[in-house]
Write a structure and sequence with these properties.
mainly alpha; globular
Length: 180
């Protein structure tokens, strides 16, 4: 929930260019990181992809830097407390001991049950794959970049964190190919 709220706020920041979205973006990003490290990483990857695909202006770039600084300031007390109780090695293992590339690559080449956990007919997986082609044909590379970045940068949680971009790819497929 915190990750989605952060993405909602950052989209508002990119669409309007107004700094009123900055504090809540930082708060929700920090809460996502504090509540579950994988969703925090998802939030950071997603905000980075959104920053890359949206029209960047000097103002939004400054706002993103300020958001990063505010997020770190909000996280500092929590980080100090966590690192006093647990060692840094615990979190380094969580963050860097997940590079099993087999899982996301398997999901890309065997999509029938890997992505959506469907037991028989993989309708959702096929619709998501079609959505990738529709997005690329309509030059909407953001969803494809977002899905690929999550698969490659979070392979341990690939099936969980790609649910949102896959749902959007399915919606894109239904919008462009199925509905008149």
């Amino acid at each position: 929930l915190f990750a989605l709220m952060a993405l909602w706020q950052v989209l508002g920041l990119f669409r309007t260019g107004k700094g009123r979205y900055l504090p809540l973006t930082a708060v929700f990003t920090a809460l996502a990181l504090m509540s579950h490290i994988q969703w925090g990483v998802f939030t950071i990857i997603s905000i980075t992809v959104l920053f890359l695909v949206h029209q960047r202006t000097p103002r939004t770039t400054i706002y993103m830097i300020l958001t990063l600084i505010l997020t770190v300031v909000l996280l500092l007390p929590w980080l100090v407390t966590v690192f006093q109780v647990h060692s840094v090695n615990l979190y380094m293992n969580v963050l860097f001991n997940v590079w099993d590339v087999h899982t996301p690559l398997e999901a890309l080449f065997q999509p029938y049950t890997a992505w959506t956990q469907e037991s028989a007919v993989a309708v959702l997986s096929v619709l998501a794959l079609l959505g990738i082609f529709v997005a690329m044909a309509s030059q909407r590379f953001g969803l494809v970049l977002w899905t690929g970045a999550l698969l490659l940068l979070q392979p341990d949680a690939a099936f969980t964190v790609t649910a949102l971009p896959l749902a959007l790819l399915i919606a894109l497929t239904l919008d462009h190919m199925m509905l008149p």
